[in-house]
Amino acid sequence: MRWALPSSLSRMFKKEVIKKIINGILVLLSLGAFLLLSARMANISLDFSELYVSRLRFIQGFILTLQISGVSMLVSLLIGTLVATARQSQNTYLRYLAKAYLELIRGTPLLVQIIFFYYVIGTAWSLDQRFVAGVLILSIFEGAYISEIIRGGYISIESKQTEIAKAIGLTKPQTFRYVILPQLSVRVLPALAGQFASVIKDSSLLSTIAVIELMQVTKEITATNFGIYFESYLVLAGMYLLLTFPVSLFSKYLERRLRYDY
Amino acid sequence: MIIDLNHVSKSFEGNPVLEDISAHLDFKSCAILGPSGSGKSTLLRILGGLLPVDDGTVDLNGQRLDTSEKALIDHRRKIGFVFQSNGLFPHLSALQNITLPLIQVHGYSETEANSLAMTYLKRFNLEAQAQQSPVTLSGGQQQRIAIIRAVVHKPSMILLDEPTSALDPDLSVEVLEMLKELIQEGLHVILVTHHLGFAKNVCEHMMFIDDKKILEFGYSKELFAQPKSTEWKQFLAKMNEFE
């Protein structure tokens, strides 16, 4: 059987889509115009042709940023889960340790943490590989925020659910696997995706300890050729967007797929 | 079902809820009545293995209810429990709510579990709701699904904690009708309720709890016809005023 929308309904949908596309283009055009106007008013002429010479370095930086962010997301998720569990623990020492970690990490700037960890702790424990150090520092920082996201999601699942699970004879691990985890993942995903976008952006601060990621590449390129300063940073911004936008799209997709009505 | 309670006590944060209860209870279906805060739900949770006693012992059909976690899990698997409201998991469909314990706890294959669950859903006219999320169902439908989940593995008895108190009268009726049918088929039931009519006409036995103790236990018809304790008389008079 052929399935088709009634023609009036299909016209309505088409109208909606066209409206969305037109408005999307309008937003992009107006933002672009504002940027160009600002550049002109500040007497900056944008010429991207000279950047072509540095394309390989940009690509290398892009790949390193991608690697650092990817690994850091996994490690920070692990740290966040462990800390969130420690926060709920019966053991007072573990609970206090988690709290102290959270206060320290969330109460100080990432830049300060990078310098302190790398030059003090890194030197003391002879952690001289910049990639490993960078991933660790970034994961420890983001892990604090992720643990709070996970804990918030966990608390929002009523204790009633655990009692029902108990009543139907599930063991504790089964309760976690079949009751808590599916609900927790749906509740924390949007916030988690936001945090993952932060991981990507915050990785730019690792340029401070000379990890040759995107930001550091741009710094180096513009240091020797000031003529392409703004062009380089515009390309840099575009490359970060290229990384964060899919994360945001993916989160929306998962949200739609995993959604159930509360 | 024979339940022996020996000097059972339970308190929460120093506040006693059940005090030194001893009783020999022999019944097929038993309604628990009593004023709010009298300890009805606490007693039901102890019998359901959801709460351990502080003192005393509980024997079910001559078997001691051990308080170790393993023994409690075993006990919970042999019975069924229905909560007052919101007793279903919101992330699963109605059907999955029923099949989850069948598959994970009672060892059924997915196909067996599905077909068994569907038999019950058809029998109680809930076939059309099988794939729906619990939040899209009426309170009465949710409770009937919860009852199916509690009986589908053929437990030795099911315990229900005020299963209709959160429902509108018309929805209460559909839940009570279903229970009546199951009780008449021989299902052993303990039910905390405030429906006097149901306690009297459907449950063979009843128990009255007040002030942390079991004050009455016996055949429903007799206890309603000839109330003994003053507390039960007063409770009945108060309830009858609004029936």
Which helices and strands, and how do they pair?
The complex is a heterodimer of chains A (262) and B (243).
Chain A lengths: L6 H35 L13 H33 L4 H16 L2 H15 L5 H27 L2 H9 L4 H31 L11 H11 L4 H30 L4
Helix pairs in contact in A: 2-3, 2-5, 2-8, 3-5, 4-5, 5-7, 6-7, 7-9, 8-9
Chain B lengths: L1 E11 L2 E12 L2 E5 L6 H8 L7 E6 L2 E2 L4 H10 L1 E3 L11 H11 L5 H14 L15 H13 L6 E4 L7 H16 L4 E4 L3 H6 L3 E6 L2 E7 H6 L4 H13 L1
Parallel strand pairs in B: 3-8, 3-9, 6-7, 7-8
Antiparallel strand pairs in B: 1-2, 1-4, 4-5, 9-10
Helix pairs in contact in B: 3-4, 3-5, 5-6
Description:
The complex is a heterodimer of chains A (262) and B (243). In chain A, helix 2 runs antiparallel to helix 8, helix 4 (110-124) packs across helix 5 and helix 8 packs antiparallel against helix 9. The longest helix of chain A is centred in the first third of the chain and has 35 residues, at 7-41. Chain A has helices spanning 7-41, 55-87, 92-107, 110-124, 130-156, 159-167, 172-202, 214-224, 229-258. Helices cover 79% and strands 0% of the residues of chain A. The relative contact order of chain A is 0.12. By secondary structure, chain B is α/β, with parallel strands linked by helices. Chain B folds into two domains: 1-79 and 158-168 and 181-243, Rossmann fold (3-Layer(aba) Sandwich), CATH 3.40.50; 87-154, no CATH class. In chain B, helix 3 packs across helix 4 (110-123), helix 3 runs parallel beside helix 5 (139-151) and helix 5 (139-151) packs parallel to helix 6. Chains A and B meet through helix 6 and helix 7 of A and helix 2 and helix 3 of B.
